[in-house]
């Protein structure tokens, strides 16, 4: 039944994305609303030297990642995948993970003292094709403030199948590099991750990392070049650290992780 459900979800998402993308491209309008009912389609293609997630390396070899998202009136639906370019995890040139997600976000523009406040509520189904035990269903609630200097954000996520909680808190900043090119943008972000016992130590209560703790920190920097109005690309770099002593020791004992992990890559983004 779970496999049938996955197939139905994929077919529904593909039909919705492709059908509405065609609608957007043709520029059709509903009931005289101008562009009000025209959906936005975002596609991101990413080559990364490693697969790193919230400070932890999941694949030490190069991977390709793709994300396709459709949004309309605050509602969004999409699919993300990670393709293994080597055989380190037994997925040579095959997807090792699929994420199917949907949600709703709303932006308040009349918040005193800041430019805007965005609230995001969403659901994600994580599908690992060759390891059903790693599948998960997650709910998240995110809040982000937009300001001239910094954009702080907090996201709380709950894997309700295995009762795993984690919280991401961070700040980001973007700065145009007009002295080089009007099309060049520099971005940086610092994120901290707190996890509950099962996030940090899995299901082994005897593990020293089985505790509620501030687990990792990650610093991301990226350059983005706006090639056209709808297409941008650029390199990025991520440096992540294990903050808790027992989690650092756990990473050191892991063949693919270190107390400090470094990742670089290049990303292509298209919006329509």
Describe the structure using short key phrases.
globular; two-stranded antiparallel ribbon; Outer membrane phospholipase (ompla), Chain C; single chain; 272 residues; mainly beta; 3 helices; 14 strands; twelve-stranded antiparallel beta barrel
Protein described:
- With 272 residues, this protein is mainly β.
- Helices cover 14% and strands 54% of the residues.
- It has helices at 2-26, 197-201, 245-253; strands at residues 40-48, 51-53, 56-59, 63-72, 75-84, 94-108, 116-127, 136-146, 151-159, 164-176, 184-195, 213-226, 231-242, 260-271.
- Strands 1-4-5-6-7-8-9-10-11-12-13-14 form a twelve-stranded antiparallel beta barrel.
- The longest helix is centred in the first third of the chain and has 25 residues, at 2-26.
- The two termini are 35 Å apart.
Distance between the termini: 35 Å
Most strands sheet: 12 strands, antiparallel, barrel
Total individual domains = 1
Write the CATH homologous superfamily.
Nucleoside-specific channel-forming protein, Tsx-like
User: β content, as a range?
Assistant: over 45%
According to DSSP, the number of beta strands is 14
Alpha plus pi helix count: 3
> What is Rg?
20 Å
Give the % helix.
10-25%
Order of helices and strands: HEEEEEEEEEEEHEEHE
Which CATH architecture is right?
Beta Barrel
Strand order of the largest sheet: 1-4-5-6-7-8-9-10-11-12-13-14
The average pLDDT score comes to: 86
CATH T-level fold name = Outer membrane phospholipase (ompla), Chain C
Structural class: mainly beta
Shape: globular
Unreliable parts: 1-17, 20-24, 27-32
* CATH class assignment: Mainly Beta
């Amino acid at each position: 039944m779970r496999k049938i459900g996955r197939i139905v979800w994929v077919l529904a998402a593909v039909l919705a994305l492709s059908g509405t993308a065609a609608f957007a491209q043709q520029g059709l309008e509903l009931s005289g609303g101008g562009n009000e009912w025209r959906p936005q389609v975002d596609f991101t293609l990413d080559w990364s030297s490693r697969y790193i997630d919230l400070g932890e390396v999941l694949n030490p070899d190069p991977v390709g990642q793709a994300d396709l998202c459709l949004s309309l009136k605050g509602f969004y639906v999409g699919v993300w995948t990670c393709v293994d370019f080597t055989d380190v995890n037994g997925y040579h040139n095959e997807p090792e993970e699929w994420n199917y997600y949907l949600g709703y976000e709303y932006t308040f523009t009349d918040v005193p003292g800041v430019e805007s406040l965005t609230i995001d509520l969403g659901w994600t189904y994580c599908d690992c094709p060759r390891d059903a035990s790693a599948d998960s269903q997650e709910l998240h609630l995110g809040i982000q403030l937009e300001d001239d200097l910094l954009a702080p954000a907090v996201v709380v996520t709950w894997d309700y199948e295995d009762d795993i909680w984690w919280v991401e808190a961070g700040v980001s900043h973007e700065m145009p590099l007009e002295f080089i090119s009007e099309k060049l943008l520099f971005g940086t972000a610092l994120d901290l991750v707190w996890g509950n016992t099962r996030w940090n130590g899995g299901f082994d209560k005897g593990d020293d990392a089985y505790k509620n703790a501030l687990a990792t920190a990650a610093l991301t920097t990226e350059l983005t070049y706006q090639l056209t109005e709808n297409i941008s690309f650029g390199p990025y770099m991520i440096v992540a650290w294990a903050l808790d002593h027992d989690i650092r020791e756990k990473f050191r004992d892991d063949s693919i992780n270190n107390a400090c992990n470094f990742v670089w890559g290049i990303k292509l983004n298209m919006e329509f």
